[in-house]
Structures are given as C-alpha cells and as structure tokens.
Design a protein that fits this description.
CATH topology: Rossmann fold
Distance between the termini: 59 Å
Keywords: NADP, Oxidoreductase
Family: Belongs to the short-chain dehydrogenases/reductases (SDR) family.
CATH class: Alpha Beta
Pfam family, one: adh_short_C2
Protein name: Rhamnolipids biosynthesis 3-oxoacyl-[acyl-carrier-protein] reductase
Number of strands: 7
Helix content: 40-55%
InterPro entries: NAD(P)-bd_dom_sf, Sc_DH/Rdtase_CS, SDR_fam, Sec_Metab_Biosynth_SDR
Strand content: 5-15%
Number of helices: 12
Length: 309
C-alpha cells in the first residue's frame, strides 16, 4: 500500500526510498516535544487553565510567555510565580500584559504591547472566557450577550489581530499554532436547571466550529488552529457549579477515569499541540475530560443535580 501511495500522490523527485532505515530514523525525535525558544501569548493566563498552560509552555522551553488578563495585580502575581520556577531555560521569562480581552480596544492594546517586545509570536492560547448560570425562564439577555461576546467574538478578534505576528515565523515543517479553549459543554449537554449555562454551552459549540473554519483559512499561512475541550478542572470558574452539584468527589466518582482534571493534563496537552509532534494536526478538538462526555452525553451529573435545586 505504501508503494502505491507514493507512486500516486508524490512527485517522482520527492519520493523517499522506503527502506527500513527511512522508516525508523525519525528526524530529531528526542526534541519533538520541545518548545525551545518559542514565543507564546496566553489570554486568561493569570489563573486556572491558562496558568497551568503558561507553566507548561515555560517548562517545555519557551523563551517568552506573555500572560494577560483584566486585573494587573493578578497578572503580576502569576508572572512572579512562573518566573520562580526552578527549571526554566536560561533567559526564559513570563511577561505581564494586563488587557481586557472582552473589548476590541483591549485586544488591540494587547497586540500592540506584545509587538513592542517581540517581532513574532509562535503560539497563541486563546483561553479567556466567562460563564453565567441562570434558569431558562429568567435568563437575562445581557448575560447571554456578555458570554457570547467574550467566548466567541473576542476569541476571533484576538486570533485575527495576532495573525500577522503568527505568520512571521511559521513554516511548512513547523507552523505557528493557535489553541482555543472550548469545553465538553460545547459537545454534549451543559448545565441545565436553575443554574443553566445556555450561553456558555452555545459559545463553546461555536468556537469548536470556528476552529474548523480558521484551520482551513489559516493553514496556508502556516498557522495551525486546534481546540481543547476540557471537562471539570478544579478552578474558580467551576467552583460554584461543583459545590451546588455535589462537590468534586461526586463528579470524580461519575467520571470513567474516577478523577477530575489536573494541571498537568492541560499543560501536557497544550505543549503537545504546540510542538513538532502535532505539526500535522489542524482543525481538531481534543477532549480532556477522562471520557465523561462520551459516558453520559454531557457534563456529568449537572442536569440531574441542578434540576433539583
């Protein structure tokens, strides 16, 4: 089959000799997960999943990781902790760039500030987001709009405005990367009942489809676009929902993997998607939830637990 494939799909001049050595000698494989020298931007990076990811990027060899969120104090605190990590490459550092990604002017400010200290960006982790819990009958229009604006429109604007910097260093062999934070709530059924998250679930479904569109649009520019769809990770955003739905132990017991997400689960996934190991993955959405969305078709326990409140 490999001979047929080569003869049909590859120009004669570029056909490799299909020898045992060719098939076993993997180019620079020991460094395939390394992010040595990469420049990274993480929105929503001062806490939770964004901070886990920022730590992973730095520890995988990135030279600069820009952390942004609305609150300057939170950014500074995160950067201080990141720069104190013991295993960073010489000269590697996290940099605080406070900005309000929910506003177009805030995204413009972020891009300008980053562009003043680097000529390119290799990796953009579009992670900033928000949620809102409210029953169907009383759900305010303003809340739905707020969630959709930050979780969808601002994600698009952030990617669009960073595209020129992302194009600078991207190549066929090592494209630049965009990673979007979606959610299993955008794949299955999210929270229902008194604390329903209609806007959040709709927004995460939207960015999953946005990922596919941008993958095709930006692929020829040597920018790959993928999404991650986390399940429950202990975080400030999830804490309220965890509490009213029985707590972390209840969620862990219902998960096929019998636990919730850990920081390393997010950090490892985004490092993989940013590395040469994922240089031919484009338009994918990777769930990181222990299998919960496939086991129950949604966010485990949310519908039945919150409906009783």
């Amino acid at each position: 089959h490999s001979t047929y494939y080569n003869s049909i799909y590859q120009p004669i001049a570029s056909r490799p000799k299909m020898s045992v050595n060719y098939e076993t000698e993997l180019k620079d494989f020991p460094s395939i997960f390394s992010l040595k020298g990469k420049v990274v931007v993480v929105t929503g990076g001062s806490r939770g999943l964004g901070l886990h990811a920022a730590s992973g990027f730095l520890q995988a060899g990135a030279s600069k990781v820009y952390i942004t969120s609305r609150k300057a104090a939170a950014c500074e605190s995160a950067v201080k902790a990141l720069n104190a990590l013991p295993n960073l490459a010489p000269g590697a550092k996290a940099i605080s760039v406070p900005a309000d990604s929910s506003k177009f002017e805030g995204v413009e400010h972020l891009v300008r500030k980053v562009g003043k200290t680097t000529g390119h960006v290799d990796i953009l982790f579009a992670n900033a987001g928000a949620t809102w819990g409210e029953s169907f009958d009383t759900h305010p229009d303003s809340a739905f709009a707020k969630v959709m604006d930050l979780n969808v429109k601002s994600v698009f604007n952030t990617i669009r405005l960073f595209a020129p910097l992302l194009q600078k260093n991207g190549t066929v062999e090592d494209p630049s990367r965009v990673i979007i934070t979606a959610s299993v709530a955008g794949i299955g059924v999210g929270s229902l009942g008194k604390n329903a998250t209609f806007g959040y679930s709709a927004s995460k479904a939207a960015v999953i489809h946005l990922t596919k569109n941008l993958a095709v649009e930006l692929g020829p520019r040597h920018i790959l676009v993928n999404a991650i769809a986390p399940g429950f990770f202990p975080s400030k955003m999830a804490s309220g929902l965890l509490e009213i739905s029985g707590g972390a132990d209840t969620f862990a017991a219902k998960n096929p993997s019998k636990r919730l997400g850990k920081p390393e689960d997010i950090a490892g996934l985004v490092v993989f998607l940013s590395s040469r190991a994922a240089s031919h993955i484009n338009g994918a959405t990777v769930t990181v939830d222990g299998g919960e969305v496939w086991a129950r078709g949604g966010m485990v326990g949310i519908k039945e637990d919150t409906a009783k409140l």
